[in-house]
Amino acid sequence: MLPGPGTRDPLRDEIDRNYHADEAAAVGALLAAARLDSDAAERVDRLAQSLVTAVRVRKDEQGLLDAFMQEYDLSSEEGVILMCLAEALLRIPDDDTAEKLIADKLGDADWESHLGKSSSLLVNASTWGLMLTGKLVAISESRQFSLKTALKRLVNRSGEPMVRTAIRQAMRIMGHQYVMGRTIDEAMDRAQQKKNRIYRHSFDMLGEAALTAEDSDRYMESYRSAIEAIGSREDPEDIFAASSISVKLSALHPRFEIGQGERVRRELTPRLHELATLAMANGMALTVDTEEADRLMLTLDVFADVLRKPDLAGWNGLGLALQTYQKRAPAVIDLLAALSRETSQRIPLRLVKGAYWDAEIKHAQVEGYAGYPVFTRKASTDLSFIACARQVLALRQAFYPQFATHNAHTIAVVTELAGDRLDYEFQRLHGMGEDLYGVVMKGNGFRQA
């Protein structure tokens, strides 16, 4: 048995030791784990270069929306702002709140840095619009008496409301690009459209964060309904050929925090077990998303409690997402491998780079920690992803590896490390990486979702 949090266990101790590990020492260990021999490194470089070259050819053929998304992808601060706006505006019912949100988000971004970067005339025109709007919004919040103030008075007569209306419409278009649908049925209808049919899909919910018991009850019912809806439309050969669902444990319990560990395990474990049982009955997999670093151990505890349930034996469909920007990721893989051996379950393990970097850094600073739970440099995160990929691929009896990445070099490395075995898959976010995977999927033997 894998010991619980109250019992000393070398695997858990190793995870704890790496919480705020020295970054230089952690990177040194990862370099050794991720190193390729010269021949393999050369093959990786050739494949990565060929992927990038092919994507650039496709880029020349893309439409306005694709060109816009290429310029404002989620690797830039401005892309993140636009994505947050797009997602939030889908859920804001009143114009006044929407206007305030736009004013708050557009005012400080560096839109000028994107001007002229795209070959698309319309994308550059959009950049001018964002640049102008951002400045107008910033002006409207200031009391400076200058040329900007005069411009503010001029624009407030007609221009700013019109520009904001245009921006809101653009955000709705972006939301449609990134969000499959407002309901699970709408999302599944889009998934069956010609351009989306070539993929398998893992569905999740927007806005997950239960603050009350009523919130968690509502999310629980949404997950139940989604699982049943997906299952009613598909009859796959195996769970990895089917669509699946991802759940956030913070949506299923309003006090999902380490200080409430015993209560959470007592109250949340039955809920996740119910959803897992329902997913198994519908022939699909269920992935537990990992969230902030201080919730990782509690996530692992609840996950292990459910995986040990005898009625899930032989399913092999309860999966976990693991953020490789956390310094603890390799130690977590070791713990999960032991859990797989204990339960005789093959765990679908989705490697992602991570989504809470800013919050993790700020939280560590506020708490006065000597170090950070995540790597502070993107290159270190990329290195960790590769090291973890090699570790997972070497343990395929324990894991069904899933690699969520939009990086051509990472795809090339994973392909090299995987060799001739095809029992793994690549994953991308809806609305992102379409050009890259359009190239990847033309290759022999690639699996994707």
Please write out the topology:
Blueprint: H1 10-17, H2 23-34, H3 38-60, H4 64-71, H5 77-89, H6 95-106, H7 121-140, H8 147-156, H9 159-178, H10 184-191, E1 202-203, H11 213-233, E2 244-248, H12 261-281, E3 286-289, H13 296-307, E4 318-323, H14 329-343, E5 347-352, H15 357-367, H16 378-393, E6 399-404, H17 408-418, E7 425-427, H18 434-440
Parallel strand pairs: 1-2, 2-3, 3-4, 4-5, 5-6, 6-7
Molecular structure report:
The chain is α/β, with parallel strands linked by helices and 449 residues long. The chain folds into two domains: 10-33 and 183-440, TIM Barrel, CATH 3.20.20.220; 63-177, no CATH class. It contains 18 helices and seven strands. It has a seven-stranded parallel sheet. Strand 6 (399-404), helix 17 and strand 7 form a beta-alpha-beta unit. It starts with 9 loop residues before the first helix and ends in a 9-residue tail after the last helix. Residues 119-148 have low confidence and may be disordered.
Question: Short description, anyone?
Answer:
With 449 residues, the chain is α/β, with parallel strands linked by helices.
- Main sheet makeup: 7 strands, parallel
The fraction of residues assigned to DSSP E strands is 5-15%
CATH class of the largest domain: Alpha Beta
Shape: globular
Key terms:
449 residues; alpha/beta; TIM Barrel; 2 domains; seven-stranded parallel beta sheet
